[in-house]
Design brief:
Elements lengths: L1 H4 L5 H8 L8 H9 L2 H17 L6 H22 L2 H26 L4 H18 L4 H9 L1 H34 L19 H9 L7 H31 L4 H13 L2 H14 L1 H7 L1
Helix pairs in contact: 2-4, 3-4, 3-5, 4-5, 5-6, 6-7, 6-9, 7-8, 8-9, 9-11, 10-11, 11-12, 11-13, 11-14
Length: 288
């Protein structure tokens, strides 16, 4: 009762201002949107926007509004209407990326610059600011790698980093919602997730683009491969979930194993998810 009646009107703004919990700030809106009518979620969104503005976060308002609306309202709305989690996930991700590009185009157009040139100028200004800070780790990196090399790394890593952050934001809110909303997803949902087989082709193509080292195709392949591997990471975690369900491992030990998998042995999890396409580890475990 508290989650559906009070939290959506207050908690998103509080979580966003906490910093570390900003990614799960749409969760109360997500829960409300699944249980109640959309207009109530829009009222809650408006109240939280007012709280963010009152706290002085004016420069971040547009971004957080898009994120809250996409994850907290649009995503659960698609789930309710279609009943398809993966399709809703992809559509919501496309919506957020579209809004991001529109926002960048609008900002770059105001200063009469291209999108890439605008991003470069903003990153350069941010780097100057970070270098000027006392005991700045960025200053140390500049001294070790050189400003141009570090700037180039930032520009090549930025596209995949943004997309991966949005994917993780959708995933973590869906994960928490599945634990908090009784009957929302079956217990086997996370253990049965699979990446569609067709995704293997763009993954292999992106890997093949690495032969064009130091060319535009190389950077396209680099960013594309990182984004696609996120979904194979989810499949690796799905295999792990299936194994833990099979051996009835729950509670603290299960949480500890998942934490270890995500933060310490993620390359192993990615490999597990990728090769599951051919070896089907869950079927083999079921046969034994």
């Amino acid at each position: 009762m508290w989650i559906t009646r009070v939290a959506p009107f207050l908690l998103p703004a509080v979580l966003f201002q906490s910093g570390i919990f900003a990614l799960v700030s749409p969760l109360p809106l997500f829960i409300l949107s699944l249980k109640k009518k959309p207009w109530l979620s829009l009222i809650a969104l408006t109240v939280n926007i007012a709280l963010v503005l009152a706290a002085g976060f004016h420069s971040k308002t547009i971004g957080v509004v898009v994120f809250w609306f996409a994850v907290g309202i649009f995503f659960p709305y698609l789930i309710r209407k279609s009943g398809k989690i993966q399709l809703s996930f992809v559509l919501c991700l496309v919506y957020m990326l579209s809004m991001l590009l529109i926002g960048l185009y609008s900002l770059s157009h105001q200063v009469q610059m291209g999108i890439i040139e605008y991003v470069k100028s903003e990153l350069s200004s941010l780097m100057d600011h970070l270098i000027a800070l006392p005991d700045s780790p960025v200053k140390t990196l500049v001294e070790e790698q050189g400003r141009d090399a570090l700037f180039k790394d930032l520009m090549t890593e930025l596209p995949s980093g943004i997309v991966m952050a949005l994917i993780f934001g959708l995933w973590i809110n869906l994960l928490f919602a599945s634990q908090l909303i009784k009957g929302f997803l079956s217990k086997n949902f996370w253990a049965n997730y699979r990446v569609p087989e067709l995704v293997i082709w763009p993954t292999l193509i992106c890997a093949g683009l690495f032969i064009w080292s130091e060319h535009a195709l190389y950077y396209i392949g680099l960013n594309g491969l990182k984004i696609l591997l996120v979904f194979y990471g989810f499949q690796g975690l799905s295999v792990l979930s299936y194994v833990l369900n099979h051996y009835k491992i729950f509670g603290f030990v299960r949480a500890l194993l998942f934490t270890t998998a995500i933060f310490l042995v993620m390359p192993l999890v990615l490999s597990l998810g990728f090769f599951d396409l051919w070896f089907d580890f869950r079927r083999k475990l079921g046969q034994t």
